[in-house]
Amino acid sequence: GEKDATVVVTYPDGSKDEVPVKVTVVDPRTDADKNTPTAKDQTVNIGDTPDAKNSIGNVSDLPSGTTFEYKTPVDTTTAGEKDATVVVTYPDGSKDEVPVKVTVKDPRTDADKNTPTAKDQTVNLGDTPDAKGSIGNVSDLPSGTTFEYKTPVDTTTAGEKDATVVVTYPDGSK
To answer: Are the C-beta atoms of 85 and 100 separated by less than 8 Å?
Structure first.
């Protein structure tokens, strides 16, 4: 800010003049020098566009009018942890670059993501069929998936029997 000061001029003969002056003190540091934005992890769903501002943890500490953008768009087409950089631009035009992490998650359940296919099976009279044997693409389904008949299959008589297999995935969806 501005400060009042007095300059004392001393001449060779010893006489003096006092001159009132104003001195303006400026801070040569930029907004980027004065501020330290912090990274904050954020999570979004596949296909959503993350907001760069949500990747900065101390937005309220930064000057009003500061803007936030990703240096390059975050790829949200696939799930996983993505490295990104937020460019923080201050009112004076100075910038900080902050490395951040954005986690992209798939909100769909295992049941949404998988489609079990039916497979006919033949058993002998009196045998108990295995529900897993009635699913044609078991190897495509997540490890830990279980299979059971909704109601037991009647094998006391010969013939074609309709049955329903309940497929239960590791995340509990069916």
So the answer is: yes
Q: Any idea what the CATH number is for the domain that residue 82 is in?
A: 2.60.40
User: CA-to-CA distance for 105 and 76, rounded, in angstroms?
Assistant: 9
pTM higher than 0.85:
no
Domain span including residue 95:
31-105
Count CB-CB contacts under 10 A for residue 129.
18
91 lies in the same domain as 114? no
- The per-residue pLDDT for range 64-114, each reduced to its tens digit, is 999 999 999 999 999 999 999 999 999 999 999 999 999 999 999 999 999
Q: Is the pLDDT of residue 27 over 90?
A: no
Q: Angle at the Cα of 50 (from 44 to 52), degrees rounded to 5? A: 135
